[in-house]
Write a structure and sequence with these properties.
Strand 1 and strand 2 form a beta hairpin. The longest helix has 19 residues. The chain folds into 2 domains: 199 residues, 2-enoyl-CoA Hydratase, Chain A, domain 1; 48 residues, Lyase 2-enoyl-coa Hydratase, Chain  A, domain 2, CATH 1.10.12. By secondary structure, it is an alpha/beta fold. The two termini are 37 Å apart. The protein has 12 helices and 10 strands. Strands 1-2-3-5-7-10 form a 6-stranded mixed sheet, sandwiched between helices. Strands 4-6-8-9 form a 4-stranded mixed sheet.
């Protein structure tokens, strides 16, 4: 069943994971969360994968958030377990040792927007609609939205969107910095793969350390952040890839990095 809930496609060093519950707009229930968890944990330790793209089946929805029909059947304890599971899963995705690109192909509400926020880069279809709409259900974002959104777009705008629960279209999402880029629906996966291919040309260890330095350094003061960056840089110095980069530059050719 897990294989059906998450479709996995490999294109060289790029893996595309597709949420596959189109009949309910790819909303998140427990089985889908656990299927996604299994996939990302496996990819985390897969040295053949350099970049992950997460998207949704169809052109209607990336992910409409939590499955509210399932939620209505849950006890308070089960709801707590769901929130615990989704929050930890999205934090794992945020901290994966390789870049994750969200290809937002349609509606992304609540947990759908929170999933996109946990990714490193967001590319959206012009048909996309995003928002943290939880307050309209008398709850708050519970999978990191209250923390990641203000860090990405600023405190004031994040409060506006969370307090009102309103949606933004692709154009506004780009204007406020919620997404990196927008494109026509038919070009979405191609654009995500194009960016992923550019990342694949870089040094794997360098990308891991750059992501680590950005994610952890931004949570600290500038001096601590610079120390984190310095330590991350030191890890790249003794690598074979660094020497290969220098040789390739000297020989005017593309480097061949091995992640060593």
């Amino acid at each position: 069943m897990a294989e059906e809930l998450i479709l996995k496609e490999r294109d060289g060093q790029i893996v595309v994971l597709t949420l596959n519950r189109p009949e309910v707009m790819n909303s998140l229930n427990f089985p889908l969360l656990l299927a996604l968890k299994d996939q990302v944990e496996e990819i985390h330790f897969d040295n053949e994968t350099r970049v992950v793209i997460i998207t949704g089946t169809g052109d209607r929805a990336f992910c409409a958030g939590a499955d509210l029909k399932e939620r209505a059947t849950m006890s308070e304890t089960e709801v707590k377990k769901f929130i615990f599971t989704i929050r930890n899963l999205f934090t794992f995705i945020e901290n994966m040792n390789k870049p994750v690109i969200a290809a937002v192909n349609g509606i992304a509400l609540g947990g759908g927007t929170e999933l996109a926020l946990a990714c490193d880069i967001r590319i959206a279809s012009t048909k996309a609609s995003m928002g943290l709409t939880e307050t309209r259900l008398a709850i708050i974002p519970g999978a990191g939205g209250t923390q990641r959104l203000p860090r990405l777009i600023g405190r004031g705008k994040a409060k506006e969107l969370i307090f009102t629960g309103r949606r933004v279209d692709a154009k506004e999402a780009l204007e406020i910095g919620l997404v990196n880029k927008i494109c026509e629906p038919e070009d979405l996966i191609g654009e995500a793969k194009k960016m992923a291919e550019m990342i694949c040309e870089t040094g794997p260890i360098a990308i891991q350390q750059a992501k680590y330095a950005i994610n952890h350094g931004i949570e600290t003061d500038i001096n601590t952040g610079l120390a984190i960056e310095s330590n991350a840089y030191w890890i790249t110095i003794p690598t074979e890839d660094r020497l290969e980069g220098l040789r390739a530059f000297k020989e005017k050719r593309k480097p061949v990095y091995k992640g060593k």
